[in-house]
Amino acid sequence: MLIEYADVFISGLTNGSVYALMAVGLTLVYGVSKAFNFAYGSFYSLGGYLAWVLLAGIGIWGGYISVFIIALPLLMAFGYVTEKLIVAPLRSRSDWEIKVMMITLGLALFMDNFYQVAFGSRMKSLPPIVDGVWDLGDIVISYQDIVILVLSVSGILAFRWILNNTRIGMAVRAVAQNPEGARIVGIPKDRVFAATFAISTVMVGAGGVLLAQKYFVSPTGGWDILVKSWVITAFGGMGSIQGGLYAAFILGMLEAFVGYWFGMTWVLFALFAVLLATLAVRPQGLMGKWG
Amino acid sequence: MGGLMAIIYGGLAIMPLFVGGVDYMMHILIMILIWAVVASCWDLIMGFAGIFSFGQVAFFVIGAYASAIVSNKFGIPPFFSIFIAGGIAAILGVLVGLPCLRLKGAYVALVTFAVHMILEPFLKGHMGRAIGTGGSRGILTIPPINIFGYAFTPDNKVAVFYLTLVLAVICSVIILMVIRSFWGTAFLALKDSEDFSASLGVSAFKYKLAVFALTSFLTGMVGGFYAHYVGMLSTRMLGIDLFVTLMIMLVIGGIGQFPGAILGAIVTVTLNEMLSPLGPYRPLILGGLVVVLVLLLPDGVIGLLRRIFGGKRKTREAEA
């Protein structure tokens, strides 16, 4: 009886860890610059398609290690340039928050249809990062799940280390806490905004590489991820990384068990119910600061 | 504002004299009027009331489905069912608005967008089929609007066009009256300084909830009208490309620059039809267009005209 749930539990844990990585990226950008990126899901697909092009298209030597070495800097550059070109010029305008949402929504439509035109609407599958299973008698855990879990948790830990121990990390925290104060002590605010956007692009793109091997890559597959990342962020609390982590694992479990008991179509309704309940009872989320 | 609106609708009203015989052109004109109302409603709630609602397409689709189901299931004449659909959309609008008004900025956009996102699985799923949405097949037979025995079917498009024009003018006048009334002033005050306006006794909650109800009602009603005009519905309308198309109307027209949204609808619907032979490249171009237009047209066509001709009226930002 409990054994059956072990599979569901492991799937919830693996997905939860990747969701955590991606939700932290989303909360980072909103927490620091108040810009909400509607193209976040399309950046997820970008990671998946980069991996697909490198592995299936070029057949790169070195497998996933080379994919990460090549894709992550590309994603970072893409995020940086995107912020500089289309988000930064809007900051000084009236209603800039809504304009950022509009422009990133346009970018999302552009990117999704670019994938459609360039790669076709058929779903692409990726090989697993490692083969084989860990046989524990009644429970069988695939090595793929373990590697995904380890990689995404290390990604989050690396991010935390950057935030706490490096100059750019401290600059990011300073701008998030008090933009005016940060400017007064000479922190280049614009560069911090671009850097956080670039880091978040890397996080969601890496999430795309990790999850694509389990769930395929498709032109519009990112919308699900955008909604999930956002519900996690709202549930955990905007701007709170720790809250995002707890929320990601809780919602990863919720998704796995709702999917198992009622079917996948109910997952979105369940997430929406959690979202509304959170906003009604505790609008700042589990651990977030309001504002 | 009113003058420009009269010129635009007057110009549209004489169009059938030139293209009345071309069904395809008349269809474009009808769609321009329908989207002009939806875009104006969006402008009212977002540009004037300052509520970042991303649920306008959702309320349009809710209205369309509601009217189709009400007229199909209960045999209520479409002329009345579109008002019922507006009422249903308004009730849902208030239900969505209630939690939203406690929230700020991006949260409102995301909750309303979440309504949009779950509408498709709802309409396609078991619950949707139970109330008669037809699941993923959609609703294939919707009766046309019938007034005193005269049926406004897609076969006589000129008649449908003038009926749409009447509806669009009524809706636009309502929107204009709201902007001109003390509501509009209250919104302007709330946008400039919410705390100060509240201290003067302007209730943000009351006005914002009312505008949620009003825009949802008008959008839902027009959605119902659309359903009876085209005669069939599917969840394809909930795709991101239609949402972005509506957004382009607002960007071209200018946010908070009513009646710019009507101009935006004219340009965008026409452009969208011209792009349709391009197949999959059409949404690609639309997406790119949003990025370029948001960057280059800060206040839309109206703002551009004002900058070129240096009109007397200052922009809203300049007043602030």
UniProtKB/TrEMBL annotation, chain A:
**Annotated transmembrane regions:** 12-32, 52-79, 100-119, 139-163, 192-210, 230-251, 258-281
For biological process, the GO terms are: amino acid transport
Protein topology in the membrane: Multi-pass membrane protein
Location relative to the cell: Cell membrane
- UniProt KW keywords: Amino-acid transport, Cell membrane, Membrane, Transmembrane, Transmembrane helix, Transport
Q: Report the GO molecular function annotations.
A: transmembrane transporter activity
Major place of residence: membrane
Record-level GO cellular component terms: plasma membrane
Q: Which family does it belong to?
A: Belongs to the binding-protein-dependent transport system permease family. LivHM subfamily.
Could you tell me what this protein is called? Amino acid/amide ABC transporter membrane protein 1, HAAT family
Name the species this protein comes from: Desulfatibacillum alkenivorans DSM 16219
Q: What is the lineage of its organism?
A: Bacteria, Pseudomonadati, Thermodesulfobacteriota, Desulfobacteria, Desulfobacterales
UniProtKB/TrEMBL annotation, chain B:
- UniProt xrefs under CDD domains: TM_PBP1_LivM_like
Pfam families to which the protein is assigned, alphabetical: BPD_transp_2
* The entry's keywords: Cell membrane, Membrane, Transmembrane, Transmembrane helix
| Any one Gene Ontology molecular-function term assigned to this protein's record | branched-chain amino acid transmembrane transporter activity
What membrane topology was assigned to this protein in its record? Multi-pass membrane protein
What is this protein's record name? Amino acid/amide ABC transporter membrane protein 2, HAAT family
Please classify the protein's predominant subcellular localization into one broad category: membrane
Q: Provide the species name.
A: Desulfatibacillum alkenivorans DSM 16219
| Record GO cellular component, one term | plasma membrane
**Domain of life according to the entry:** Bacteria
Q: Where in the cell is it found?
A: Cell membrane
Please tell me whether the keyword Transmembrane helix is annotated for this protein.
yes
Where, by residue number, does the polypeptide cross the bilayer? 12-38, 44-67, 79-99, 105-123, 160-183, 209-230, 242-271, 283-305
